[in-house]
Automatic annotation (TrEMBL):
<feature type="domain" description="Chitin-binding type-2">
    <location>
        <begin position="297"/>
        <end position="351"/>
    </location>
</feature>
<dbReference type="InterPro" id="IPR002557">
    <property type="entry name" value="Chitin-bd_dom"/>
</dbReference>
<dbReference type="InterPro" id="IPR036508">
    <property type="entry name" value="Chitin-bd_dom_sf"/>
</dbReference>
<keyword id="KW-0147">Chitin-binding</keyword>
<keyword id="KW-0325">Glycoprotein</keyword>
<feature type="domain" description="Chitin-binding type-2">
    <location>
        <begin position="162"/>
        <end position="216"/>
    </location>
</feature>
<dbReference type="Pfam" id="PF01607">
    <property type="entry name" value="CBM_14"/>
</dbReference>
<keyword id="KW-0677">Repeat</keyword>
<dbReference type="InterPro" id="IPR051940">
    <property type="entry name" value="Chitin_bind-dev_reg"/>
</dbReference>
<keyword id="KW-0732">Signal</keyword>
<dbReference type="GO" id="GO:0008061">
    <property type="term" value="F:chitin binding"/>
</dbReference>
<dbReference type="GO" id="GO:0005576">
    <property type="term" value="C:extracellular region"/>
</dbReference>
<feature type="domain" description="Chitin-binding type-2">
    <location>
        <begin position="218"/>
        <end position="278"/>
    </location>
</feature>
<protein>
    <submittedName>
        <fullName>Uncharacterized protein LOC108047037</fullName>
    </submittedName>
</protein>
<feature type="domain" description="Chitin-binding type-2">
    <location>
        <begin position="87"/>
        <end position="144"/>
    </location>
</feature>
<keyword id="KW-1015">Disulfide bond</keyword>
Length: 351
């Protein structure tokens, strides 16, 4: 290749014949050196080494069906969602407010001065009462749980517990009523996440999103529900959706095709009668829970839960759980920030 270039150098105006001859001499010398390396086998060795290094830089992380290597995994320490994380679950939580405990509906978290004061148990609390208020007969089966809406311990069948992590798929769910904290699940491992810069968790897309596309209505529902004061809330993400508050919980409702929710009559109405300008069709974001998993093209550590920036994309990142890794996308318009290990607005990345 170098020899062909040397023999076909054109004559450029202002360039002397001696300068062209000098250039041809050096290029021909490079071509001779390449031929010598090729014939001696050194160039092949160098290219092979470079190829091996390139492959090592792009190691495919183990997938869902891959066998794990090294040691008994059951003996590994279980990930602690409340201590082994840079996210403070009690941040911006008013003193005296109790939070639900992920993975155990019987437990609750007491916050004070933006820190965890105590992790308690409803069953243990009831046993310590004299006499027990919920389960007075020790010989009978009695299950209790913590109700984060009413902030009380009560019978388990009356409590809406947090979802549990599925061991077979990637999923997420909202953690608190602020809509900024959520739990990301992979291989049954719950990981506490937090949105920044005014972004909110969108349970429809499983990720942080702009607030104008998120229905954060939990705080708008009164825990002291009265039948005569039914609360209806319009959706910010869809013209055809609305919410009905019941016992402090927002229940999502959907109007029939062709109709839209009208806040004036608190009913489903013809679209022409409703002033709704939401452009839901412009966003086609498939949630993680319904998307085929994309294996991460990095080697994930065999122990622990880790987040890494993507090699070539600013709007994506890698999520590693006990040696298995997947590639996750940010909401369009957001970029991954390694400092907070979350997607955020570009102007705040690295700040």
């Amino acid at each position: 290749m170098f020899l062909c270039v040397a023999l076909h150098l054109p004559n450029y105006p202002g360039v002397s014949s001696s300068e062209i001859a000098f250039l041809r001499f050096h290029i021909t010398g490079i071509d001779s050196a390449v031929k010598w390396l090729t014939n001696s086998g050194i160039l092949v060795v160098l290219l092979t080494i470079h190829r091996i290094e390139a492959v090592e830089d792009l190691v495919v992380a183990p997938g869902p069906d891959d066998e794990r290597e090294g040691g008994d995994l059951e003996q590994e320490a279980e990930y602690d969602i409340y201590n082994n994380t840079q996210i403070n679950v009690c941040n911006n939580v008013v003193d005296g407010v109790y939070l639900p405990y992920v993975g155990d509906c019987d437990k609750y978290i007491e916050c004070k001065n933006n820190a965890i004061l105590e992790i308690g148990s409803c069953s243990e609390l009831d046993k310590a009462s004299d006499p027990p208020q919920l389960c007075p007969n020790a010989s009978e089966t009695c299950n209790v749980g913590y109700d984060p809406v009413l902030q009380i311990c009560t019978y388990l069948d009356k409590v809406k517990c947090l979802p549990t992590c599925d061991s077979e798929r990637l999923s997420s769910f909202c953690y608190d009523n602020t809509c900024t904290k959520y739990v990301l699940c992979y291989y049954g491992k719950p990981v506490l996440r937090e949105c920044h810069d005014g972004l909110q968790y969108n349970n429809v897309t499983d990720r942080c999103d702009f607030p104008e596309y998120v229905d954060c209505v939990a705080n708008d529902c009164s825990a002291t529900f009265q039948p005569k004061d039914i609360i209806y809330l319009a959706s910010k993400a869809s013209c055809s959706k609305y919410f009905v508050c019941s016992d402090g919980h927002p229940w999502e409702q959907e109007c029939a095709p062709g109709l839209a929710y009208n806040p004036e009559c608190k009913c489903c109405d013809f679209a022409k009668n409703v002033n709704c300008t939401i452009d839901a069709a412009a966003r086609n974001i498939v949630p993680y829970s319904r998307s085929p998993l994309r294996r991460a093209d990095i080697e994930c550590p065999h122990v622990g839960i880790h987040f890494y920036p993507h090699k070539s994309r600013r709007d994506a990142y890698y999520y590693c759980v006990e040696g298995r890794g997947v590639t996750l996308d940010c909401t369009p318009g957001l970029q991954y920030d390694q400092k907070v290990e979350e997607c955020r607005k570009p102007q705040f990345v690295g700040v």
